[in-house]
Amino acid sequence: MIDQPARRVGALLDQVGRQLRQHSMPALDSLGMRPRHLLTLTVLRDRAGSSQADLSTLLQIDRTNLVGLLNELEADGLIERRRSPEDRRRHLVELTRDGRELLSKAEFALAFVEDHVFGALDASQRETLYELLQLAANGEASCSELSSDC
After folding, report:
1. DSSP secondary structure string, 133-148?
2. Can you tell me whether residue 61 is helix, strand or coil?
3. Under CATH, which number does the domain 23-134 receive?
4. Residues of the chain below pLDDT 50
5. Domain-by-domain residue ranges, the chain?
């Protein structure tokens, strides 16, 4: 009997991720957005704004690159930067009304993409998948549970 290769979640996640990207890009392109714009606007909405330094950390993007990204979003009227009244060295970044509207349109378009890619799953299965991915993304397993090599 031939041993079956172990099931690897990473390869399946990569395949699903590729499908999501393949179908998401046209939806975002039609709105004049790129994935990094979507992520930035989402973080700003979910946090009700952020300091520029905190946003750099949250997005895991170099501060210099963040400035370029924010310049693009600000030029399109999607965000607003202003100095913090408490600390004039800090810049606060917030979504504008136009930014909220565009983000809403993007999320609506991407919901159709998810319906297509995850069409084989019912609502309960999608919820379970979401919860499991949330656990993985949040690093629920401690290092000691995984191995002593962490």
Report:
1. HHHHHTT-S-HHHH-T
2. coil
3. 1.10.10.10
4. 144, 146-148
5. 23-134
